[in-house]
Amino acid sequence: MSVLARTEELLSRPWTLSYQEHLDAHGTLPALAPHEVIALAEGAGLRGRGGAGFPLARKLRTAAQGRGRPLVIANGTEGEPAIRKDSTLLMHVPHLVLDGLALAARAVGARESLIAVHSGLVAEAVTQAVAQRPDRVQVHVVPPGYLSGEASALTRSVLGGPALPFVRDVPLAVRGPQGRPVLVQNVETLASLALQARFPGRPPTVLLTVRGRDVQVLEVKIGVTIGAVLDTAGETDVQAVLAGGYAGTWLSAPRALDVPVSHAAGTLAAGLLLVLPHDACGVSAVAQLARYLAGQSAGQCGPCANGLPALAAAWELLAAGDPPAGTVDRIERLAGLIDGRGACGLPDGAAVMARSALEAFADDIVVHRTGPCGRRSAELPR
Prior knowledge:
- By secondary structure, the protein is an alpha/beta fold.
- The protein has helices at 7-10, 19-26, 34-44, 56-64, 85-92, 94-108, 121-131, 151-158, 187-198, 226-233, 282-295, 302-320, 327-338, 346-360, 362-368; strands spanning 2-6, 71-75, 112-117, 138-141, 182-186, 205-211, 215-221, 240-243, 249-252, 272-276, 280-281, 376-377.
């Protein structure tokens, strides 16, 4: 395992490699035909690294077969406040991402491609990298927010609309808002594609943000256990782990340490391992997460506008201690009501997080039924 960056580095100015330094380090990008790019992605088993883990080859093939000229978007928005893997990648090796973007555009026959980021140091690094390259790529700066990086919201923003999700009857790779295929891929996915093009058969790795006593970004092999990752990061005080992101899965220790980091285990998702130490209250951490997710709602559908605030309120009552009778049952019922009914995946993720927390913190919840647990309130980035 390799540590790509630590807290002090994550907060410094960009250290972008020049395009020539990138070529010296990685070599020129092979001139692959469209079908060869798709076969490469399929053979390597590459999946999306933004959360859903959808097979890249399938998306490439779908967009290539669609009607109209495709649009390809590299998603580097990283709207979740706890995650730093994409920003670290873009500030370390942006040209790997841009190489992957070029390959994806070639695979689907796109003449237009762009990279979307939030404003700030990452935007500076990407703009600098794009200016050094011969291929034409637009840099699109999206408004801050958790949902502005959601695929449909990002697509609307790029095309001049509001950065809000929309309900669609077919995938974006089949038909986007203007009727043409839109391929949206996380920047880590594209960087992985560029590495596979240069080094076919290279075992795929993933980037993880590990948050505990420190903030670190690690490159690890898929399938390594959470315990092994935390050992590398030097995290030894582990009560529980939130795996995947704020809309991820809570796992209590010691069970969490033996769980692999993978799509199959449901622990990879957006690439976060958030460590909760023993002196922090897990129920309060869940209440904070639920309230944060409710605050990120676009307010366009019932599960978000009504369900998420109600879920957050129930967790807050539980965190305060001595909640009204039936509060835990209400949490379970609300999670079932919002799951699968939203315009985007935000309510689904909140439901996953809430359900897993009921299991991971079952003993603490028993204590909270009669009063506060006495542990300190967890401090989560927002």
